[in-house]
Design goal:
The structure is a single chain. About 25% of the residues lie in helices and about 25% in strands. By secondary structure, it is an alpha+beta fold. The strands form three sheets. Strands 1, 2, 5, 6, 7, 10, 11, 12, 13 and 14 form a ten-stranded antiparallel sheet that branches. Strands 3-4 form a two-stranded antiparallel ribbon. Strands 8-9 form a two-stranded antiparallel ribbon. The longest helix has 15 residues. The protein is globular. The chain starts with 14 loop residues before the first strand and ends with a helix. Bound molecules: protoporphyrin IX containing FE (HEM). Protoporphyrin IX containing FE binds next to strand 7, helix 7, strand 12 and helix 8.
Length: about 300
């Protein structure tokens, strides 16, 4: 029996920090995962924070082959559409998502983790983010309407029991920078055609009227007539002059995540997602989110005491 990382499903946190790391030149994947497992052991209700840990697919499958899905792949090649639109590949070694009740608490918690990891990893990406207007994206649209309910989300996000990597998940992580000025120059009706839902209440646009290049149409991936869902936990980041979406998408099936990206760039049929005219992907990486049962195997008492000081 295994248990998932519960922070994947934690609701209600307004403040978020996403940290991506690379292993120090003298380090190893094993040492890095041991270090983060020991740090994760320190998180209790007392910290008041959620922590979710993701590991580079090749690192996880080399140190925990029995607890790893067989066909994980990495984001090491940019995804280039036929018209030259490119999603960059910025695969790193470790991903952390720290969330909690206030920016200050998340700042303190992230800083402590950063310090405890410093012997093992170098910070490569550091994003401070927040929930905007009750789960709206900065475009003003509700983000997450098509997500599975919280009763269904574990079935969508987690690898089923008895499969390799059970109760783990696969994460697609991307930072997107918005051009809200040009999006704001569109009428609300035009914006709704870009997204594929209404702005105020997120009603679906009827299938016959849904533009083929709308974001909803491009990210709808089907198999045998059934839509293949993912579990999105996006937030907003930035300042008044530099801001966008942190895309945080979990699935138990990496292929559907990749197919959504391919469809957004127009690879299968030349139709590019209209949303990509107003927002630009700056990073892109995949991580395996091991179950806590798998992650715990890498913790040890000694490191625990060092990190605790
Ligand atoms: C700047 C980046 C993005 C923004 C602002 C954004 C925003 C939105 C919004 C507003 C919706 C409609 C409401 C909803 O169902 O949540 C939506 C739907 C969706 N998005 Fe995104 N999204 C972004 C990137 C992505 C990426 C990279 C993927 C997948 C790889 C993705 C997958 C989906 C899916 C699967 C849906 C539901 C489609 C359906 O109704 O069947 N999104 N997104």
């Amino acid at each position: 029996m295994a248990y998932p990382q519960v922070g994947i499903f934690a609701m209600g946190a307004p403040a978020h920090s996403y940290l991506e790391f690379e292993i120090v030149p003298t380090g190893s994947g094993l040492e890095l995962v041991k270090a983060i497992a020991n740090i994760a052991m320190l998180q209790s209700t007392v910290s008041g924070l959620n922590l979710v840990v993701g590991v580079r697919p090749s690192i996880w499958s080399s140190i925990a082959p029995a607890d790893s899905p067989s066909e994980l792949f990495e984001f090491i090649e940019p995804i280039a559409g036929p018209d030259g639109f490119v999603m960059p590949a910025t695969q790193r070694d470790l991903w952390l998502w720290i969330s909690g009740p206030s920016v200050g608490q998340v700042f303190d918690g992230s800083s402590r983790i950063l310090e405890n990891l410093s012997r093992h990893a170098v910070l490569a990406e550091d994003i401070s983010a927040w929930s905007y207007q009750n789960n709206r994206d900065l475009t003003g649209f509700i983000d997450g309407s098509a997500n599975p309910s919280l009763l269904e989300a574990p079935d969508v996000a987690l690898i089923p029991p008895n499969a390799p990597g059970e109760y783990g998940s696969i994460l697609l992580f991307q930072k997107w920078r918005h051009d809200l000025k040009s999006f704001g120059e569109l009428s609300v009706e035009e914006q709704e055609k870009v997204i594929g839902r209404t702005k105020k209440t997120s009603e679906e646009i009827p299938e016959n009227d849904l533009p083929v290049n709308s974001h909803v149409a491009r990210t709808t991936v089907t198999e045998g007539g059934d839509e293949l869902p993912i579990f999105r936990r996006n937030t907003s980041y930035g300042t008044t002059s530099n801001h966008g979406t942190v895309f945080v998408g979990f699935s138990n099936d990496q292929d559907r995540l990749h197919e959504m990206l391919n469809r957004m760039t127009g690879i299968p049929d030349g139709i590019r997602d209209a949303l990509t005219r107003y927002t630009t992907p700056l990073t892109g990486s995949y991580y395996f989110i091991p179950s806590i049962t798998s992650l715990r195997k890498f913790s040890d008492e000694t490191e625990f005491m060092i990190a605790k000081r």
